[in-house]
Amino acid sequence: MRVLGPLEVWRNGRRENLGGVKQRALLAHLALHANTDVSLDQLIEALWPSTRPRSVVQNVRTYVWRLRQLLNEQLRTHGTGYVLELEADELDALMFDELVAQARRRPDAALGLLRRAESLWRGRPLEDLPGHDAWAPALARLDEARLAATEQRLGLQVASGECAEAIPELRALLAEHPYRESVCGQLVLALHQDNRRAEALQVYADMRVRLTGELGLEPGSALREAQLAVLRDEPAPAPLRQLPPTVFDFCGRAGEIAVLTTALRQGSAPAVVTGPPGVGKSTLAIRVAHQVGDHFPDGQLYVDLGGTSDHPREPGDVLTELLHALGITGAGLPAQVTARAALFRSKLAGRRVLVVLDDAASVSQLMPLLPADAGCAVLVTSRRRLSELPGALQVELSPFSPEEAAELLTAIAGEDRVCAQPDEAAAIAAACGHLPLAIRVAGARLAGRGRWSMQVLRERLVDESTRLRELTSGELAVRASFDLSIRQLSPREFQAFVRLALLGPHDFPSWVVETLLGEPGTEHLVDGLVDAHLLETFGADGIGQPRYRLHDLLRCHALNHALPDGRAALERTLRAWLWLAVTAARRLPVTFGTTIADVTPVAAPEHLLAEPVAWFEAERRTLCGAVDIAADAGLDEVAWQLAAACVPFFDLHSHYEDWARTHARALRSVRAAGNRVGEAALLRGISQVHIYRSEFTEAEQGLLAAQELYRSLRDYRGQGTSLAGIGVVYRLRAEYERSLEFYGEGLRLLELAGDLHSVAHVRASIGGVHSSLGRPEEARKWLTNARRLAADLGDAHREALVLVRLSALCRSTGEHEQELVSARRAVTILTDLTDERCTAFAQVELAEALISNGHPQEAHSLLRQALETYRRTGNREGEPAARRALARAAASADQLLLPYFQPR
């Protein structure tokens, strides 16, 4: 169904006939309020705001009957009203909201997601229907959301250097909204980045004249910062906006909001919101953060600290996430928590940023996450009082007042029902202890059961006398509130709810329900849990599958209802993820030294692996969490095999932090279990991360330990890859003869093991060492042999890396045409394989070949790309080589200007 333009319904590739104007208007009203109970009176008021025919009720029912022939079960009766039940992929307005929300959660893919969202618009919403006053709020929200999404997308284009494309759109948008300072600020920055400073300053000056002359206002801080960036000739990057959306039915808390907004604008000390579970700490914090957002033009950061989970997040992991958001990734992340904290504070120095730290566990968890700059502010929520946090403003939330509780119940259950039975409504709120979360559960039950009177729910609460007493204090209040919904679940929904809690605090796709229950055809149970407000939708991932998450408190509550065979269900699900990870890993370029286990095929959605890199991207955080879950459950074999299966993807996209953390967690598990096979594989994997980070002492120690374990297991392949890894360490230390010794012994063992992919790798490495030693013919023999073997194996990735070495060899022997051919072929292969680290390595070699062949300008562009990759991933080995090549390119470009210079 489509409302972002003319109203349309498509089925089986055909546009349906929706009937006359009134019938289409009724459908439009239901679509604008999709998944919400719309009373008969509301429909009549919307369609006939003034005069109404006598048969108005019958007319509505006739229209509904006709639409049901088209919409089947999607249009349902709720009491005396109706609800149009649609998923995001069934209504363009819902899909638009979903894509925009996903763009907030995934900054790396935000630009593409916003473009998809905007492509859903075909004109003005419902432009083929007469206007109705009842639609005004919904249409205004859609228009504002579209404008905000367009602004965000244009801001991302400017930030990514697409200024020329963005400037015409920004000019048109500013002409349409001449007082919108955010659009003006983006246009100023875009013109500045496009080296059009005079135009940028004129745009600012024109806006200031408009604001002061027509409204008597000076430009806001964000727009003034954009002007200053132009005047200082410095970049002004697009600020981060990570805050989750605020709830539309927020009620009460006026006093707390006033205190918090004042404190945050002053920014002198952290503001801490504490209180019992279910009292609305996070809801209040997000609301306040949005209200003060304009005071922090450089961005708003948001992190869930998982304080109510079994394993609150470590400060080091949280700092990794924050630094990723600020552009620091790969080996650029310091290893020590204190160093990460210092880098985080440095990145925020001189900036005005709001940091929201949700669900904190302790002061020790918070301290490394606090910025030092006075221009920044911190807003914290926690179940615990954090009185020992120095200088913090403490705001402790209590349950709602009766008036606030009634307001929230009215917003959820409907004004007509609550006003008709105010005493019954007050009794329900009192039975819920006036806790916001409990009232939300009660209101949701009423909203989903239009035929119930208020008295029915009140009597059900009274019958639960024991639980009513529990509603008066602390965490028990939340458990009692949850029970109101849990008791309404079918046996299979209840089982799914309890089993999903085994998956920890991570989001997950819906297919895991079938695996957890061991029963095909049960994936639909997630819909019942979402309807019962026991499961949160978490958007769609990069491969299009919807994802879900249990709120931490709900998950803890579900774990109190442990069912038989829970461990078997968990292991079955983890093995399904393992099989998918192994299958996806085997479709990626081979990572030298990694052990991908041979696992038994299990029932799992293999069709999701059509694009293995995209699948790994979608599941990355969940897979990392699955390693923790397996280790905690004593499933050491699953833990290490899953960690190892992720390595080809981690290697391809330089996710060194995830690589090291999952291996370290799995290593503790296998050591506790005495699993020497897993220990050897993990030590070998961790050592590779040390090599990438130039931590050669740690790498050598780990490789020697792995080699010794492999020797005791009589594993020739493991010994060979470990010894070859030590050869890499010595090669990088420029101890070439020592390197050849380890390479040679490693090669002998790998040939005995029959691992031809690794044999090709080591032969190429030996050729590279001979080239470094000035032995070109010996190097050519080894490299040619390695390339032939890689080609025979169909290992394009390995062949490309050999071609890079052959190109360097040809340069040293003066074979410059062949040098260029080899380097171009290598870059083409690696680009197609989306291996950004190795592509950068090959780009540097291609740049050298271009310099040798008299094309320094083309080399300069390539080296800029490679340097950007090295900086983003923290590749300490690659960046110096790229810089040296860049200097040679510049020098060669200067030579082109000399008289009589003839390029090759």
UniProtKB/TrEMBL annotation:
Keyword Zinc: no
Domain OmpR/PhoB-type: 1-86
Keyword Transcription regulation: yes
GO molecular function, one term: DNA binding
Any one GO BP annotation for this protein: phosphorelay signal transduction system
Keyword annotations of the record: DNA-binding, Repeat, Transcription, Transcription regulation
InterPro entries per record: AAA+_ATPase, AfsR-DnrI-RedD_regulator, Apaf_helical, BTAD, NB-ARC, OmpR/PhoB-type_DNA-bd, P-loop_NTPase, Sig_transdc_resp-reg_C-effctor
DNA-binding region(s), chain positions: 1-86
PANTHER family: TRANSCRIPTIONAL REGULATOR REDD (PTHR35807:SF1), TRANSCRIPTIONAL REGULATOR REDD-RELATED (PTHR35807)
Similarity field: Belongs to the AfsR/DnrI/RedD regulatory family.
Protein name: DNA-binding transcriptional activator of the SARP family
Origin species: Lentzea flaviverrucosa
